[in-house]
Every structure is written in structure tokens, then in C-alpha cells.
Fold each of these.
Amino acid sequence: MNISRRTQNVTGTRSSVGIPLVVSLLVGAFFLLPAACRKAPAPPAAAEGVDPVLAELADFLAIPNVASDAPNIRRNAGHLAGLMRARGIDVRLLEHEGAPPVVYGEIAAPGARRTLLVYAHYDGQPVDPARWASDPWTPVLRSGRLEDGAPVVPLDSLPEGPDGDEWRLYARGASDDKGTIIAFLAALDRLQADGIPLSVNVKMLFEGEEEVGSPHLESVLRAHSALFRADGLLLCDGPVHQTRRPQIVFGARGVMGLEMTVYGPARALHSGHYGNWAPNPAAQLAGLISSLRDDQGKVLVPGYYDDVRPLSASEKEALEKAPRVEEDLLREFALSWSEGSGARLEELIMRPALNVRGLLSGGVAEKAANAVPPEARASIDFRLVADQTPARVRELVEAHLRSLGWTVVHDAPGEDARRRAPRLIHLEWESGYPAYRAPLDAPFSQALVRSLVQAVGGSLVVMPALGGSIPMELFDRVLSVPIALLPIANHDNNQHGPDENLRIRNLREGITLHAALLSGLGAAWE
Amino acid sequence: MNISRRTQNVTGTRSSVGIPLVVSLLVGAFFLLPAACRKAPAPPAAAEGVDPVLAELADFLAIPNVASDAPNIRRNAGHLAGLMRARGIDVRLLEHEGAPPVVYGEIAAPGARRTLLVYAHYDGQPVDPARWASDPWTPVLRSGRLEDGAPVVPLDSLPEGPDGDEWRLYARGASDDKGTIIAFLAALDRLQADGIPLSVNVKMLFEGEEEVGSPHLESVLRAHSALFRADGLLLCDGPVHQTRRPQIVFGARGVMGLEMTVYGPARALHSGHYGNWAPNPAAQLAGLISSLRDDQGKVLVPGYYDDVRPLSASEKEALEKAPRVEEDLLREFALSWSEGSGARLEELIMRPALNVRGLLSGGVAEKAANAVPPEARASIDFRLVADQTPARVRELVEAHLRSLGWTVVHDAPGEDARRRAPRLIHLEWESGYPAYRAPLDAPFSQALVRSLVQAVGGSLVVMPALGGSIPMELFDRVLSVPIALLPIANHDNNQHGPDENLRIRNLREGITLHAALLSGLGAAWE
């Protein structure tokens, strides 16, 4: 096992995050390797002249990773297992019917009293390649932001020092969440190369269906609960603070998805001969959406806010301390206003949300035909906060729709059903999960904050919860383990949209953060 | 010129429309041909065993005819000119910068005192091939309705008698409007084959951009007004009555199109991190649409109905006489209700309409990503009635939007503009045209009704106006000619949608109707 070929040129510069970095060519034999791992295969050789971490990430990103694409998601799992085995990590692919494999690994640290379980996911959001500047599955390096016109440059042209910090790697999964996995593996490499011991035993759990709501994760956790036993769980996902400062987060919003279809005539009808006689489903859908949320993003479904857990005093204090970012964000996103009737972004993500993520009916622009469309669809995602449950939200939304005269069905209706109900709506609920917020003063929370502050000082942002969704509540419920979230991606990573990317400096600092935790957490965690 | 090869097997049966049909093999030399036409090329030979009219229509439909597809639209014009020249018709392609050619032809009838100008269009609506059961540009014959599971059958299997009446030919343009052109040419063939003289001189005007609102038609008419001089104009487009009874129509709604775009963040943003902070353009668009029309199709733009011309007593009487069709249509279209607060279809199409023909934002179903979309688009068509003008409608709609706080722009806004205006909307108006209604008691109107009643008896439906749009007002304004509309297509032709088709019986009866008019109109027109 030749680990020296992976000595992080990508971080081969002094990072502003504060840990002294040593580019080392030492070959360490640091980990206590289980016997089975001694014959692990060597990692694939990096392309000539390309930074090894960048090369490893690019290779990983070249494998399409939409959860529904079973053959490719399995290739991802196999590839990731190979990367781990190449580092002498004991790896298992945990299989569960209908689910992508969970890639599990562990490393024992001699003398460590605590075990840290690290979670990340290797699947990515669906893509619409037509809307990407480059193919989502062909990683390309740009010498800056695409939006600023930065050109594609060869992978081997990345400067080692700060000159490369603002460069970005573009591909689906670059930031959400393959980049994080590679950064974590690179942190292990760095500690080994530098001869620094792990301060905690490490278990790794890499999931392959996070972006579709982790429908099998609970079964997997229950089936292997002994394997996953740990003293703390670190979820590695999401973006750092918009100020580009590192952050540690102790909760996340829950999520659930909904596809809604309303109906017009059984087939597209000439809008001249039948317009303002045949019911227009697009117009009906517009009215329906307006009944669900107002212009300020407030959800109009009766009872929707009833279950929301109020903020604690320490949570309010943490939110108060969070840096102000709105002005910069408005400029960056070309916005003149924000929803929420004047509330701060940090406050708003502590509230539940109803986001219209898609509308489709008939055609627009060159596809517009003068016809009454047969149906109109809206796709919605709900963001839940602590103490809301998907089941209760479903119930409230359906009750609301019924109160407005809609007939709710859960299977696509046939023509007979369409002939009977004047306001017929087909709802397809995606499995979702609730939110989670850990107490800010729990020992694990405090240890994380202490060891990170040691590494990055006052720049650390402590957030009670992330706006995005991670199945934290599930881990809490099934594994009864304290949980925190350590993101590394740049906030402007186009996560979930076209042209997802990872800023090189975030990759470099991510490796530093993980190395700091792995070496320092044990001592801070009494 | 061997005209006998085109003796309409497609109509080689006794039609219910009432004109005795004679399948004749006589070769006539009926038309007084201008010298230039004597050397016209022979028409392409029909495929072995295929009904010649069907073969001619299928060949024509195989040429894609979206107006924006310049090379193909030109192929259509050339092909049509060839079909006309093959019949000895004096043909000219009238060119106008930026427009598809207008195909013009004329035939002099010895002794005729009146000249009839016949209009049809050879372009078709845009297609979304993914939504078609068969390729829109590969005409296929089915032994019934696609919706009833009728299979594709060979073109040469069409029965000559009533057994083939319910068969249908599927392709873009089959009914709107190439089928009509072919029926008209076949009627000329039949009269010639039967030795029946034309009763009027005939001029033909076949346009190639009707489906995009005929933007150059006015210039073409003005440039060639002497050529188009006639005593009456017969527009050949649209469907027959929903009872499948033939109809003659004396007006049509006007039309105009509008593409609306509203804006969210400059790029798709993660709906967890930014949902209910970043303005959601899909939700804004929904509110906007709800401000434009209500659930019953009533337009909410202030002043929208002010210009509407009231119905005359004879128009009201004609509408009263029109057969009741709603119950059948509701069943056929799988609808449980209709817009219009209980008004009849015939009344409703005499009112203006606002139809949402398309919605697009982000993605739905497998393309749904948990993101706040950067923009949301709606595509709308307005149907106007007599005395409304596109300019006034534009003005009213924009004033309405401004009164709701929208900043209206007509060019796609840059990021700076998006940073300035909280409710920014980009409007792209398509050129449209007003409606038209001819007096029901004008001599041309009366002559048409009389000669058609002679052919089809009491089954003729007389309609004051069609719900669909034809640029009648333009002809009236520029050519000062009385106008009527003679449709032949089945009403259930999926016009403008996927799987457009022409019912064989409609093709057969269309030929009969045109033959009746061409032979009888002169005598009825004092």
C-alpha cells in the first residue's frame, strides 16, 4: 500500500484555517490495520501531474450518482469501497433490498476511549444536462466561477498555493456530497503522512439514497445497530457559512416531497374552440398554489405551524451571534428582496417552508401550442422543523385541499374518475423525515466546538440548525447517539441545481477541519 | 397530364352529405387552362394500391411544417405548388422578406360572373414528439381512434365504403390544415372527372405562417391586392360541428400570445438553505395567474370586456339553433364540469378568453430537484372577439400588472435589473390579430348557406363565429371582401396537441362540400 502518492498537494499550502500543514513524503504505517486489510489493493494511480486529491475526486465524480440509476449507484459504492480499502480501511457493503449499498468502514485508534461515527452520502440530485454548462458527469476544473466567465482549465494546471483557492471543480456531487467524502479520506491520509495519531476510533457510513429522502436508512440502521454503535455521530454534508467561515451545526430541517397533478380535458384541446369552456388545469393549479403559501413564503395550510418547537435561549443567542449575510446574498443572487416579511435568513430556516420546486403544464416559448393542456403538475418540497412530522403535514395538507373542494386521490385517476370529480387532484407523497435539533450544551456538542475552535479560532460559526435536510432525527431515534453536522462545501456551490461545484479552498480547508477533529476531538471529549 | 389517376377513391362511396357521387374514369379537359399551364408536370404517382387522395395527403404531411423551420416550410410550399401545377393551375410563389412563401393559384371558369378566393394554410403547430404515439411527420393510418386502441394499418388497407369512414390519418397538419387543401384539390379533380363545370372563378391563397399569427400576411395582401381581388373569400380551416354535422361560419375569434417570465434567484438555490428566504418565482407566477383569470375562466383584467361587440338578434337566434353538444363533449373529454358558470359552449366562444397554454419552472417528477428555481414562465393565449384589439388588450394587461406592483420589461432583464425590482416581469407579446364577424344576411353569406343547404340539407349548422382564430379581420380590412369559413376537419382531431388526426369520413365529406360549392355557388349568388 503506497500511501505517499496521495499526500494532498491540494492542501500543500498553508491554509488560513490555521493548522500547520506539512507536505510530507513519509510513508506511515499509522493505522492498526485489521489483518483482512493488509492485502487491500493499491489506489488507482492519479493522472500524470494532477493533484492526487483532485484526481481522486474527479474520478469519483465521473460515475453518475442519481439514486434511481441502480447500476451506476452500485458502481459508485464499489468505487468508494475501493478508495477506502486502498487506505487499509476495513470495508463492508451493507445490502438492503431495494436500496443502494451502504458503504461501511472502520478504523480502530489505539488507546482511544471514544468512537466517532462519520456519515456522508455518495448519491446526488437528478440532473437536467441541457441546463448545465458542461456535462454533469464529466468533472471540469475552472479557474474561478462559471458565472464570472472562468474558463475550463486542465486538471493538472491547479496551482498549489492560494492562487488556486478560488478555482472550482464542476460536476454533480462535487459539493453534495462526494467532495466531503474525498476530503475526509484525504484528512486520514494527511494525519498518517504527518505521523499524527487518530484521537478517536472512527466508523464510516456512506449512504447512496440521501437525495431521495433515505427511504431505507432506518431499516439499515436497525439491521446493523451494533455495527454503528458510537459515542457521537458526525454528519458530513452541506455548505459552510455564507461568509465562507467554517461552521458546526447541531440540527437540520426535515424534508418531504409532493407531486401534485390536476386535470383538464383528457387530451389537449384547441384553445380557440374550447378555451374558456374546457377547464384549464394550469389556471386551477395556480389557484391551488396560491392557497398553499403567500408571497412572503408563509404557509397557509391551517395548523401547519402548530407543532413547531420554539427556540431555546441558547439557540436564540447563537442565531444572534451569526454573521449578517443577507446584503451580500441579495447581491450575489441578483435579488431585490427576500421572503419572510423582513425576518433574517437564520431565523427563517428555523421555520418550516413550502417550496415550489417545479411547475409543468403544456408548453412555453417555442413549445407553446394554443391548446388547453390535459393536466398541470407542481412539485413541492416541504422543509420541516423540530417536532413537526411528515405524517402530520400530509394530513394537514390533504385536509386543507379537501376543505377547498378538492377530491384527493393517491393513484393516477382514470377517465371515469375524471368525469366524476370537478376538482380532482392526484397527490404523490415522497417519503420524508422530520427535523432534529441537539442541545447546544451536550458534552459531544461542546467537545466539537472546543476542538474546532482550537483549529480555526473565533471564525467558527455555531448554528443551532441547518436549513437543509439531513436524516438526523432518524439517527437519534434509532441509534440514540448525539449528532452534529460539519459541512465543508462553499455556500455558492449550486447544490441541487445545474453547475454544482466545489471551491478548491473549501476542499483544502475541509481536509484541515477533518484532520483537526480526528486528531483533537478525543482530548476535548471528557 | 393524366388527371384520371386521381379520381378520389377516398370518396368512392355514397356520402351521407347528399351529393350523388360518381366514380368516373373519364379524362376531362374541363378547365380553361392558361397557356403556361399546359406543360405542367404530372403529379407524383400514388403508391401502389393506396387511395390516391390519401396518398397525396400522406406525402404532403411527411414534410415537417412548423413555420419557424424555414427550409422545410419552403419544401412544403414547393410541394404544394407542384400538386397545383399538376392540375393545370396557374401557380405563383409570392415571396415576402422573412415570411414563408404564399402559394397562389387561379382557375378561370368560362361564363362565371363571380370570383371566389379560397384561403388555407400549409404550416402547422409546433410538436413535442415525445408526447405523440407516432412520429408527427410520419403519417400513419389507424383503423379508428388512437384513444380507443385502434392499431396502425397499412395505407393501402383503407376500405372504399363506409367501413373506412371512422379510420383516421395521424400526423401534424392532417386536419389543420393540409387535409383541407388536399380535399379542395380533390374536389376540383372530382368535378373535372364528372364533367361538372366550376360556377365561379377560383383564386387560391395558401399561407405558411398561420400558426404563428400570420405576421406578414397583411404586407403580402397589400403587396398583391389586385391579384387577390374577389367577390367573396372562403377560409378553409377549423373543425366541423361537434355533432359531426357540416357547418358554415361567419366569424372567428382573434388571437394573441404572451410569454411571461418572473424571476427568483440568479441561479437555482438549495431549497433547504434558502427556501422561504429566496423569493420563489413559481409561487409568484401562480399568484399572478390567479390575478388574471378566475376558476370559471372570467378574465379579471379591468376593462377587458369593455370593447366586446354585443350579439345581434340573428346571431343570438343562430346560437339558439345550434345543436346541444356539451353532454357528449364532457364525456368525450373526461370532464365533470365546464368553465363559464353554466353558459353554453356556443355562448362562451362568443366571449374573449385567456388560456394558460403552458407553465414551466424548475422540474417535476423525476426532474424535481429540491431547489428554488431561478425563474418561472407562463405561456398564455388570448382569444379576442369582435371590436377588441390586440393593442388595447396589451395595454390593459400591462396596466393591470403595474397596478399589482409588477415592473414590466420587454427585454430579458440582466442581473442589475433583477436586483432593483422586487416584482419584475418580462413580457414577450406575439403579434396577434382581432376577431371578425360578418353579417349573417349579406348576399355572400346567404349564397353560401343556400348552396350548402342544397347539398347537405338541414344538417348544416350556421355559426356566427368560430372559437378558433383565423385572420378574417385582416382580409376584411385589406381586401374589403365578404368572408366566410368552411371547415371540414373532425372536431376531435387533437388539433394543436399531440396525435393530430383527420377522420376519413371528414376528408370524404370535405371533398363533397367543396365540390358542391364550386359547382353551385355561382347560381345562388345573385
Amino acid sequence: MSTEEIKGTNSRRTEDIDATCEEFCFNPIAVDYVQKRMLTEKESTLLTEIFKALSSKTRLHILHALSQRELCVCDLSLVLDLSVSAVSHQLRLLKAARLVKYRREGKNVYYSLDDDHVVSLFAYALEHVRHS
Amino acid sequence: MSTEEIKGTNSRRTEDIDATCEEFCFNPIAVDYVQKRMLTEKESTLLTEIFKALSSKTRLHILHALSQRELCVCDLSLVLDLSVSAVSHQLRLLKAARLVKYRREGKNVYYSLDDDHVVSLFAYALEHVRHS
């Protein structure tokens, strides 16, 4: 690698690590506008719960499976190669975060994504990682 | 509370806690369909990184602020009542998860949401908690 290439790499690294303002200077109109539209305490708590529930590979696999079709707990245990009780545990956490819902049919319980917001939220996240 | 009301409450609670199939029974077509469309290892890793980055109230406040308009690091420090260095630290984590991007203008660094996927993902999550 030439000296020039090394310099180039270093300068990009420095920029990435230290991307902050060089002197304190702010826009009072922008600050005021945003401060008047802050998340409430309840909203930020509920959002954190949702995103924590999504921060697990197993639960992401469950959501991805349910984004394709409604499945019963037994189907999900086969898809993920996990015990029914392990899947049920993860489903309870997803249900508590309002990400999935269920309906009973005979002796089976069928799960699906809670509503269209969850469908879209998951679809955009997946599109983002596929496009990045 | 009457005995009937107590029974009603208990039965709802049992249903919520134990919403699982009563006997093992699966749909092989559904299982096969979903198994052929599983998330890849890379996709589930990247999704987990995104959702972990979103599992913090401070970072959610930053994203919510940036969902309204582009802001420099100093603006964000005033909006959130945090030091510039604390805000920079959180922005680095959000940048690493590809949730925000920045541009330099003179001595200032302006941050915004990374792209339309992030805008939509955040908007749907917020709509979900507001609607729930």
C-alpha cells in the first residue's frame, strides 16, 4: 500500500471516529422546534420495550416466519428447530411487547404479527439491511 | 368482586400465560414454505445490531429529533440536555448500526436519518406505540 493510500485510509478513519462540531454553535429555531415535539416518557418506554424484544436472533426468526404467514406454535418449533416450550417462551415476550397476537382454533394456537405497523416496521428494517 | 368475575379474570390470565397448542400437530406445507425463506445469518446479525442500537431511550430521543429535521451535534446536545461528547458517543453507535449519516458544513457536522427505510421503520414503530 502506498503512503498516499495509507493517508487516505487514516483520514477516513479519523473522520468516522470524530464526526463532531469543531466549535459550539447552534440553531435556536431548530432546537426549539424539536424540543416542543419530544417523545413522551411513555412513548420512549414502549419503544424501548419493542426494540429490546426485537434484539434477539431467535425472536427475529420467529417474526420473519410470521411475516410470511400465520403459524401455530408446533409449526414454529419445527421451523426453528426448538422445543414447543422454548418457542412459547419467546412468543410470550413478543406478545408482551405487542409484536404478535394469537387466535385459538381447536387445540391449536395460531400466531401472527400484531398489526400492519409491525408488518411494515419489520419489512423496512429487513429492506434496510438487504440494501446496505 | 363476585366469584364469577374472579373466575373470568383468572381464565383470561391463564389464556395469556399459556397460549400454546394443546397437542403436537403441524402443517408440513407451511413449515416447508417458511423454512425455505429463513433469514440468513448475516441478515439476522445486522437486524439485531439495528434493534440493539434502538434499545436505548437516549438514542431513541436522538432518532426522534432527527426524524423531524437535520441537526448538528451542538443542537442535539441542547435538545437532549447532554454534553456534546455524550451525544457524539451515542451518534457513533447509531452510525455504526447504519441508522444515521452525517455531512460536514464549515466547522459543524449535521446528522440525519440514514435513509428512507430508517425514516419509515421509526415512524411505524412510533405509530404502533401511539395506536396501542
